[in-house]
Amino acid sequence: MNILIDPNAEVKVEFWTALVGGSFKFWTSKEAAQTELGASGDVTYIQVAFCEPNYRDVCELADMATTMNSDGSFSIGLNNIKMERVCRLIKSWNIKDKDGKDLPCTRENVHKMNPTIAFHMAILLEKALGYDQEADSQ
User: Fold this and answer.
1) Contact status, residue 107 vs residue 87, Cβ threshold 8 Å
2) Is 41 a residue whose pLDDT tops 80?
């Protein structure tokens, strides 16, 4: 067992999405999307690769989202952690711009994403990292 995080290790998430009735819908497989939308449904496949976070990443993300209130208590901005986790760990994606060209995988472009898609991507990253499950063996 290696206790160090491999700097080349990746966490990949993928999903299919389509605009249905003015709202984005998401599926874990193309088949599921086509079953719901029909074979001619306009479905977009999104695949994103992230670095595997190390101890430093986790600590710095938590510190960035923690603020001290005027009464001395602390608040944690959970959405700030989610957004910053995506921005900090993202390595590559297959997202295209409106002209069909590769969209650069940058912090600025993550910030410009439709929030529904960005939140879905962040949730899938959390699931892939195991953050959505309660620790049962600590």
Assistant:
1) yes
2) no
Q: Give the amino acid at 101.
A: K
- CA quadruple 70, 72, 75, 81: dihedral positive or negative? positive
27-54: buried (b, 16+ CB within 10 Å) or exposed (e) per residue? beeeeebbeebeeeeebeebebbbbebe
**In the structure encoding, which two tokens stand for residue 103, read together?**
């969209």
Query: Residue 50: beta bridge partners?
Result: 11, 90
- Our separate counts of H helices and E strands in the chain read 5, 6
Q: Residue type at 122?
A: A
Beta-carbon count within 10 A of 60 CB: 13
Distance CA 27, CA 20 (A): 12
pTM, two decimal places: 0.84
3-state secondary structure of 88: helix
